[in-house]
């Protein structure tokens, strides 16, 4: 399996679960039943191998932070060596990691702020806008080189 296939596999799980978490946050913001949302989070946590330990937004944020840390520490330096023509794309992706980290921190803070349900929905919307664009750009800009790479 190429690194591009693996990257897209992980990205698709992140996209899927972000959409689920956003739907649940919207339900909570609209005054929905918290028990239903908790059940949805339990269901979400048992769906795939990446998310077996995840039961809330805090662990989702942790997973994304870890994913980006691994990319920045291992994948991006390798791409810079193999394809120096992609340095500008890698620079942009690393800047995205910093921006997304700030948004993830806001989601984490909002998830802890039980009094302000709307804050979590807004934080997830902001995260989704930036993060989904980041995932698409990463796949598009690095796709060719990643499709040639293996572990």
Short description:
By secondary structure, this protein is an all-alpha fold.
Structure description:
This protein has helices spanning 3-29, 34-45, 57-82, 87-112, 117-148. Helix 3 packs antiparallel against helix 4. The protein has a single domain, classed as Four Helix Bundle (Hemerythrin (Met), subunit A), CATH 1.20.120. The chain has 151 residues and is mainly α. 81% of the residues lie in helices and 0% in strands. The N and C termini lie close together (9 Å).
Can you tag this structure with a few keywords?
151 residues; mainly alpha; Four Helix Bundle (Hemerythrin (Met), subunit A); 5 helices; 81% helix
CATH topology: Four Helix Bundle (Hemerythrin (Met), subunit A)
What proportion of the residues form beta strands (DSSP E)? under 5%
The overall number of domains is 1
N-to-C SSE string, H for helix and E for strand? HHHHH
Number of strands: 0
Low-confidence stretches: 48-55
Total number of helices = 5
What is the residue-mean pLDDT, rounded to a whole number? 84
The assigned CATH architecture is Up-down Bundle
Q: Largest sheet, if any?
A: none
The helix fraction, in percent, is over 70%
């Amino acid at each position: 399996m190429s690194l591009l296939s693996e990257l897209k596999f992980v990205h698709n799980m992140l996209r899927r679960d972000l959409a689920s978490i956003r739907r649940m946050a919207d339900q909570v913001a609209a005054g929905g039943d918290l028990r239903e949302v908790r059940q949805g989070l339990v269901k979400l946590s048992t769906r795939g191998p990446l998310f077996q330990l995840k039961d809330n937004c805090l662990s989702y944020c942790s997973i994304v932070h870890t994913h980006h840390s691994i990319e920045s520490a291992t994948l991006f330096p390798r791409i810079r060596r193999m394809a120096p023509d992609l340095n500008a794309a890698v620079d942009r992706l690393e800047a995205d990691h910093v921006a997304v980290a700030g948004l993830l921190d806001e989601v984490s803070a909002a998830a802890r702020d039980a009094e302000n349900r709307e804050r979590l929905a807004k934080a997830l919307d902001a995260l989704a806008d930036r993060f989904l664009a980041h995932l698409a750009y990463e796949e598009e800009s690095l796709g060719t080189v990643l499709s040639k790479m293996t572990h």
